[in-house]
Amino acid sequence: MRPHSVPLKQVAGRIRQLVDDPEFKDNIATGSVDEGEDEAQEGRILYRQHRIKERNQSLVKKKNFKDKHGRLFCVACDFNFPNKYGEVGEGVIDCHHKTPILELEPGQKMRFSDLVLVCPNCHRILHKESMSIEGLQSIIQ
Asked: Structural domain boundaries of the chain?
């Protein structure tokens, strides 16, 4: 056993305790802490297990947008991180898959044209609303 690992049986037992705790249930149901409270505990250590679809970072890294356009910018809103934040903003951009990763078949190939560069705000809206780049651009303009 690794030094910081906790046996799965112990983790499962703690989860069962939390689920049976009425205060925990109330907080989950309301999504908030008691009214009038101006503080809440943070920093609990939780364990999660996820199943994810693998992404091939080589395609994203090879997307040579900057060479073609001379700069990195959001294709939806035209935001440019270095213009706003200076040197610290250099290279900050998200790469959005036009076809959602969840819809890809295992082993399906992607092309550069399947990817677009967007700022984190636009990326969040694209995923939240499941819309196309063109749909987002029409809202912004």
From this structure: 57-140
The tens digit of pLDDT for each residue in 22-45 reads 776 666 655 555 556 567 778 888
What 3-state DSSP class applies to 94? strand
Secondary structure tally for the chain: helices H, strands E: 7, 2
Q: Is the pTM of this model over 0.90?
A: no
**Residue at token pair 């196309």:** 132
Do residues 131 and 118 touch, judged by C-beta distance below 8 A?
no
Q: What is the dihedral of CA 1, 50, 124, 30, to 10 degrees?
A: -90
Residue with tokens 């809103």: 77
Q: Label the pairing between strands 94-97 and 115-118.
A: antiparallel
Task: Give the position of tokens 């706003």.
Answer: 84
- Distance set, CA 49 to CA 3, 46, 53 (Å): 19, 10, 14
